[in-house]
Every structure is written in structure tokens, then in C-alpha cells.
Automatic annotation (TrEMBL):
<dbReference type="InterPro" id="IPR001584">
    <property type="entry name" value="Integrase_cat-core"/>
</dbReference>
<feature type="domain" description="Integrase catalytic">
    <location>
        <begin position="156"/>
        <end position="341"/>
    </location>
</feature>
<dbReference type="InterPro" id="IPR012337">
    <property type="entry name" value="RNaseH-like_sf"/>
</dbReference>
<dbReference type="InterPro" id="IPR036397">
    <property type="entry name" value="RNaseH_sf"/>
</dbReference>
<dbReference type="GO" id="GO:0015074">
    <property type="term" value="P:DNA integration"/>
</dbReference>
<dbReference type="InterPro" id="IPR047797">
    <property type="entry name" value="ISNCY_transpos"/>
</dbReference>
<dbReference type="GO" id="GO:0003676">
    <property type="term" value="F:nucleic acid binding"/>
</dbReference>
<protein>
    <submittedName>
        <fullName>ISNCY family transposase</fullName>
    </submittedName>
</protein>
<dbReference type="InterPro" id="IPR009057">
    <property type="entry name" value="Homeodomain-like_sf"/>
</dbReference>
Amino acid sequence: MDENHKYEIIKKLVDTNGNKKTAALKIGCSDRHINRLIKDYKEEGKAFFVHGNRGRKPAITLPTDTKQLILDLYRNKYYDCNLTHFSELLAEKENIKVSVSTISSTLRKEFILSPKAKRSTKKEVKKELKALQSKTKSKKKAAAFQSSILELEDSHPRRPRCAYFGEMLQMDASLHHWFGDTKTQLHIAVDDATGAILGAYFDMQETLNGYYHVLHKVLNSYGIPYQFFTDNRTVFEYKKKQETSVDKDTFTQFGYACKQLGIDIQTSSVAQAKGRVERMFGTLQSRLPIELRLANVSSIEEANEFLNSYIKKFNKQFALPIDSIKSVFETQPDNEKINLTLAVLSSRKIDNGSCLKYQNQYYLPVNGQGIAVHHRKGTTAMVIKAFNGDLYSCIGEQVYALELLPEHKLSSKAFDLATIPDAPKKKYIPPMSHPWKQASFEKYAKSQLHRKEVA
């Protein structure tokens, strides 16, 4: 259009012997350049105004086959990637180094947008697709346009970061198709000051077990944080609950563990109040499923193993440097204290065989020398399942190990060769300084507001 405009002005100027200054104003050039245009028009005619690069691709243009390869890879292998992540994967795994803007323009021509596209961009593409859909007569094309129309998503507002590393950890879980065909819950703890993920764990449901594993990783790797900021899940807090059984009172158990460690818990029912962890899940949901799929992860065990290496890579790319921010983490507890603090409690009664039943199996309390200790029927006992799976029982102010009773004896005196019976094996008994004393825990549980309201 610009070339034809110049040609018509110069042609009219030559044919009518018009004013050169007026022509220069219309074209936007000097009088001397008008004289050059007149001279070249008389020598070459209309062909002179055709630009020399017409029909020639720039040297930096991406080859057509590379563009097609990028489209095919995104549709078949790296689908649902955001474009920044897609460009990183292309460079890392396919040896194709292209900018995000090039990828964006290539995909945009096929009406493919990033899952993280802005609201205005989605509206614009919707408008284009609807216009094309109304014009096309082919039902197949109309259906293709309709499937490309994207829904709008809400965003979360921002808030200032905390001043110190470990001052506040935001904890939450997200139900998503992270891997395989079944939805699973990813539990994470995010430091508010640096944006680093300090602990992550997959589980089938959002449970006490999942948050215990996250807390275990935080304690082992960094120490004791000052505060947790979470939602109003029953693991953290609730106002009233009809069930007062210790087994199901996960809030009391998690709260007591945090009390022993000196960790404050704050909760909120507003998702935007903990926007750091909410936005983190948005980033992970667009990146982690692709990484898990490329690593051929198909089980929770494999996924949790994969998280150990992936979280380090993720923090290196997205988190602020930890060294530049002062840490307020308390000294790490020893492994024995962590193991006993992150315990699951259950209340049981001793039966007439001096045993207690736990998870459909019978256990006998034994002392440190491995000798069975007998109690009266109906005696209250608190079963302590430590983080590593070891079982203990607290009866009164005494702690015992629990020995599993098999359904059948391993040998028979009547039919097997006589053997010297093994001496009782010594059992590890935690010292009385451990946090799960029955009396102190029951005192804490009775002081909780939700238990008072139920009573």
C-alpha cells in the first residue's frame, strides 16, 4: 500500500507538472528526494517503487519445518505447558533454541494460547474465533474454532513478603491430575519471604500424614519455623466437631506437635490471604504434570522420589536467594525428637488377655528388656505410632514398646525339634522426656475450644 501510494503521487506530479513541495509533504520526505523519485520513475517506471526485499524472507526467519515441529511437539508431547516452560523444554530436550515471543506468535497463528495467557488476550482470541466461526460454512472448521475458545480465569491479588526466612510458611494441598489417571493431593510448604518450596509430599487425600511428611522435611532440612499460615482444614483448626475420638481429632494432634516445637499456627478461610501458596500451585500445575509425564512417573512412591530432585531445580530457578535474607529458623531438633513428635495417637483399652487391639492386630506391651507387662482389663492406654512406623504405648506415666502377637506359633514343642528358646530381645523405650506423655496430652486436648463446645 505504501509503495502504490508513492507511485500515484509521483505519477500525478510528472503528468500534471504539479507542486513538488506539496508532493514532499504527502510522502513525508525532502524536496531533493522528490527529484530522485521523479528521475527514477522516468527511467524505470512503476517497477522502481517495488521494494527490493519484496518476496524475500529475512535471514533470521524461523524455517517453516521448524515452526511445524514446534507446533507438533506442543500438541502431542508438551501440551498444557506454559510458553516459558515450553521454551525451556525445547532447549533442554529437543535442542531447539527459540524465544518465548517466537513460540507465542507461532502458536497464536493456530489459535493456541498459553494456559497462563492474560484475560485481555483470551478475550481478543475469543472475538477472532467467533468472527471466523460465524463466517465459515464448514461444520468441521466451526467445531474446531469452538474448541479453541478459552474460558477466563480469576487471579489472586499480591501482598508484601515477610522480612525473614522462616518467619512464615504457607501450607496447603492441591487436588489435581498430577500423574496417571487418578487425582492426588500435593502438600507443600512455601516460605513467604523467599518463595522457596521447603517441603512437598504426594498423598491420595489431604491428610495429617501428608502435612506430617512436609513438616518432617522442613525440620530436617532447615529447622523450626516461627509460624504456619494455612486454611481452615480440620488438620489445623475447626470450631466444632461432634466426634471427640482422639484417633480422628487430627487438629489436636497436629496442634500439639506444633506446640511442642514452639510453632505458631494461623488460619484463614480466604484463599487470597495466602496468595503465595495459591499462585505456587498455579505454577506447579502448569509445569509439574509435564515433568512427571516425561519422567514416566506412574505411582505415588515414584512421584515423591521425583520431588526430591525437582524441588531443588524449581527453587534454583524461581526462589529468591536464601543467603541474602536473614534466617529466623530455630536449631534443628535431633532425629529422635522429630520421630516422636510427629506421631499419630490412638486411645485403646487393655483386654482380658493383657493385650490391646490396633488396626485389627493384637499387641502386647513389653518393657525395655523385652518382657511382657500385664495390666488389668479396661486400663486406658495411648498407642503412639511414631513417624518411622514404630509403635509404643503410654499407660499412666510409663512408656512401653508394643510387640505384635502372631496368629500362630512359629514352632511346635510336640512336632518340631527341640530348640533352646531365644532370650527376650531388648526393646528401645523412649525416655520420659518425650512429648507424648498421656497426662500432658490429655490436659492439652481438654483445653481445646472445640472439645469444650462438644462437651
